[in-house]
Amino acid sequence: MPTLTIDGQEITVEAGIPVIEAAKRLGIYIPRYCYHPGLSLAGSCRMCLVEIENMPVLQISCYTRVQDEMKVVTDSEKVRVARRAMLEFLLSEHPLDCPVCDQSGECDLQNFYMEYGRYDSRFAENKVKKKKAFPIGPHVMLDQERCILCTRCVRFTEEVSKSNELGVLNRGSHSVIDLYDDKTLDNPYSGNVIDICPVGALTEREFRFQCRVWYLDTQESICNGCSRGCNISLHYNATARTYKAGGKRVMRVKPRYNPEVNQWWICDDGRFGYEFIDQNRIEFPYIRTDSDLEMSTWEEALQKASGAISGALETVGPEGVGIIVSPQLSNEDLLIVKRLFVEELGISNLALKNPWQKPGYEDDFLIKADRNPNTQGAEKIGFKGDAKAILEKAAEGKIKVLYIFWHGFEDDEAAELLGKADFVIFHGVNWNGSAEAADVVLPGVTHAEKDGTFTSFEGRIQRFNQALLPIEEARNDIEILLDLAGKLGYAIEISGEQAFEEWQGLTHEALGEHGTATTSEAPTEA
Amino acid sequence: MPIVKILSEFFGNEQARDLQWRLKHGGYEAARKAFREMQPDEVTQEVIKANLRGLGGAGFPTGRKWTFVPKDSDKPTYLAVNCDEAEPGTFKDRYIVEWDPHRLIEGIIICSYAVAIHTAYVYIRGEYVRPYERLQKAIDEAYEAGILGKNVLGNNFQLDVFTHRGAGAYICGEETGLLESLEGKKGWPRLKPPFPALVGAFGCPTVINNVETLSHLPKIIEKGGQWFADLGVERSGGTRLFALSGCVNKPGVYELPAGTPFRELIYEHGGGILDGKELKAIIPGGTSAAVLSADQVDLPMDFDTLAKVKSMAGSGAVIIMDEDVCMVKALHNIQNFFAHESCGQCTPCREGTSWVYRILSRIVEGKGSPSDVETLRGLNQNMSGTSICALCEGASMALGSFLEKFGDEFDYYAKYGRSYVEDARKGAVAV
Ligand SMILES: Cc1cc2nc3c(=O)[nH]c(=O)nc-3n(C[C@H](O)[C@H](O)[C@H](O)COP(=O)(O)O)c2cc1C
Ligand code: SF4
Ligand code: SF4
Ligand code: SF4
Fold it and tell me: Domain with B294 in it: what CATH number?
């Protein structure tokens, strides 16, 4: 393993890595535009130039491999002069769009200018006119004048999405990024080009002009769009459901690096599928009076739910109650469900899957056909089976009370069965067919509004963290369940994390940054 | 010294393009000799002994370049023949291909034999329609005569030669831009290393040589490397074709020994300066080379000497400027070329060449200001030593040398909005 010196600090790294990465390990961030660790090397922006002993000219640190006894200087006067020169070149043609540019505040032109630029402009020519602000796909806008031709987006479409929609057309200072003829940027991963574009040339159509980035808070989370478990950050506006954004709190979703799962990327479904967090939410508890659902207090709703369950237990016994959990629930939620309904009440009519839900598109990169984040977790905790048998029992009157988490049974067959059930409790976050048909509706929270873990299809347990308060009167699911337990006469005192620790023998903290493979035994029969 | 004509022996001779005629006049004899009498390594050694330098512009020793090709590679090795000839002022390769295409093909065979190459591509400038037609015809005839193909000249050695026409980009003459273009991609130069000798066309080891370089091989094999080396100067053997243009009476292609002084080329062969005017400046090796002033006219034209005076022998394109040439307008023209031809891949070149050109355009339109010249100097510094390929370096060499040697003309034009040279001619220089 070569040992080199960077800015006077010695470091030993594995052979073959570029100097820019070795520097990063010492906490030295070398500015760059074209370099991206997830893409092939372009070496074209010339921003990452550094001084290397015995080399006649500055070298690009993205392309230069470490060597034993190499001496690198990343911040000499010569280097700063070169960086300033590259910035001046890049900004010479750049439009003065910052006040109206979405990238403003997270733009590497602005950032590096403040660090290395700060010169007076000597560009006195007319700027080259290029195409501004036009959509190149369902999610992405391109502004060719803001583009600095780093080709990250092109390399992404060649190497990662392998869809080849984008290229550099023309030559010299007339070069532009554009779509190839007859192409649209509509591959399932198109949104990633927005993240890797170091400037405001590629912006998100959904996010355009919605919010200044400095008003956003971020929280680490896990995508709930499929069983891959991509690591994400939720970018949200904590202050209010802004008028401008149509009541949205979560403003956008960004991928979060996890080398084991999604590297730097996420799919478009995950990126743009966050609207359920703020739209069509069940904001209050409801109970059915006569034939209508009416808003109620939590006390009333839980009373009614517990009354129905107690009634069924008394008249029929545990077989009189059916529980359909959801693979959208966290491991912690599911552990509490199991504790209350299975272990305390002895219920065995359990189901997990909605057999009417068609498997989604799947590919050999990230997207999995199972559009739920926690099927593995639910199965490992002991839930399995599909909901059809339970619904049939309910329709036949064998099950008196049906407790449904999340699932919207909207398929004709399912809706008909559900319609024949005696008493339905719905516990979930969005209005759907099951909620509309229920006798009691208990509003739980989304993964943006609670802490917890999901288990990916590979068995990797990963944490997500609460970003938002529960919407309106919605409540944390575990609180709801514990309250209900109390009403049923069981004083369960356990937190989600305690339940998790009992299950896995691990704290949440111990899962670390990138999650950990599950340690539990094969699925326990429930 | 009697003038030795190697490459230009048959220039102007209509018959030399004909294979049958050419076979009667020494054609393919050297290649036969190589197959008959020499091991491949001996061919390379002869070329090294000849001090043959790359005549495409960089002057890299040809035989040494061949030795960089790995001998134990499990991949095929390719030859890419550079006939892109796009450096302004350069028009010598077309003479070879138009008048004596079989000399090039013979050179290709000799190189291929030496390096164990079985496929050669000739990358030919798109605008070169006639040269392409003549070369293609010669290749076709060579195939028919069994000179190319499965058994080259009756030997157990296969060689296929393909022509590939460019689409009009100077950058596709840069060797790795050429390879990208050959592979069907945009002609963007590659990062180096690896050099093409290790990873070239289609990921395989590749030798890239200029047309003129390869066309020298038959004579080197015929007469020996020492004979060739003795024609030239210490580290640059043989003759080369000088493409003389600009303000001279007899522009054209002249074959002279490497190291011949400019004076001889201009005054003896080129017939002196047009209209008997004074020499003002010489561009010694294509517009990428730093301009020389008239007092450097006695310098010998060889790679090492010109490198010592911070210019270069380049492609052997000698452009002459007389006392009436406005250096501001001349540089404006040159920088127009670089701005137009920059491939746009890397920042300093894409932005720098176009910025420089636009400042010069403003000055030439009379809208300059004195600070513009300072800006040009600054940009020149920032363009030097920071780019991917040598195009930017060439633009910067031209810019820097014009400003260094003729800075007053730029200051004058920027300040008064008029050309110093033209004012001087009218006797109206501002003071
Ligand atoms: C911008 C640029 C343009 C070039 N154009 C040509 C060209 O048209 N023909 C050529 O033979 N070499 C050209 N070269 C030089 C080639 O890169 C390369 O050095 C040459 O083909 C090697 O062959 P040689 O060693 O026989 O000279 C160019 C170089 C640069 C940087
Ligand atoms: S890309 Fe960056 S520098 Fe350019 S307008 Fe947007 S914020 Fe400003
Ligand atoms: S659009 Fe963005 S990512 Fe693509 S080349 Fe331009 S600056 Fe780079
Ligand atoms: S120096 Fe110019 S021509 Fe060469 S790669 Fe960079 S932009 Fe292209």
Answer: 3.10.20.600
Architecture of domain A286-517: 3-Layer(aba) Sandwich (3.40)
Residues in chain B, overall count: 431
Phi, psi at residue A437, to the nearest 5°?
-90, 0
CA of A99 to the centre of ligand 2 (A): 8
Residue B14 lies inside a defined structural domain of this protein: no
Collapse the DSSP code of A395 into the 3-class scheme (helix H, G, I; strand E, B; otherwise coil) and give the result. Answer: helix
What's the pLDDT score for residue A522? 45
CA–CA gap between residue A424 and residue A435 (Å, rounded) = 9
Q: Is A158 on the interface with B (CB under 8 A)?
A: no
pLDDT at A244: 55
ipTM score of complex: 0.94
Residue A523: which pLDDT band, with cuts at 50, 70 and 90?
A: very low
Averaged pLDDT for residues B33-37: 98
- pLDDT band (50, 70, 90) for residue A241: low
Last residue of a domain, one of B301, B322, B343: B322
B337 CA distance to ligand 4 centroid (A)?
13
Measure B59 CA to ligand 1 centroid, in angstroms: 9
Please tell me whether residues B274 and B421 are part of one structural domain: no
pLDDT of residue A525: 44
Would you call A46 and B348 a contact, using CB atoms and an 8 Å cutoff? yes
- Among B301, B243, B283, B300, which residue's Cα sits nearest to residue B85? B243
User: Alpha-carbon distance B186 to B180, whole Å?
Assistant: 6
Model pTM score: 0.95
Residues 6+ apart with CB under 8 A from B307: B313
Q: Do B342 and A172 lie within an 8 Å CB cutoff? A: yes
The answer to whether B386 contacts A57, with C-beta atoms less than 8 Å apart, is yes
Q: Is B362 on the interface with A (CB under 8 A)?
A: yes
Q: Check CB contact of B336 with chain A, cutoff 8 Å.
A: no
Tell me: do B82 and B224 sit in the same domain: yes
Spatial distance between the Cα atoms of B349 and B352, rounded to a whole number of angstroms: 5
| B67 and B179 share one domain | yes
Q: Is the CATH number 2.20.25.90 carried by domain A214-277?
A: yes
| pLDDT one-digit tens code per residue, A307-336 | 999 999 999 999 999 999 999 999 999 999
The total domain count for chain B is 3
pLDDT at residue A524 is higher than 50: no
Per-residue pLDDT tens digits for B214-254 = 999 999 999 999 999 999 999 999 999 999 999 999 999 99
Q: Under a CB-based contact definition with an 8 Å cutoff, are residues A383 and A334 in contact? A: yes
Residue type, B386: T
Q: Is the CB of A468 under 6 A from ligand 3?
A: no
In chain B, which residue's Cα lies nearest the Cα of A92?
B351
The identity of residue A398, as a single letter, is K
Picking from B294, B322, B350, the residue at the C-terminal end of a domain is B322
Domain-embedded: residue B431: no
Which residue puts its alpha carbon closest to atom 4 of ligand 4? Answer: B389
A385 sits in the region (left: phi over 0; alpha: psi -120 to 50; else beta) called left
**pLDDT of amino acid A290:** 82
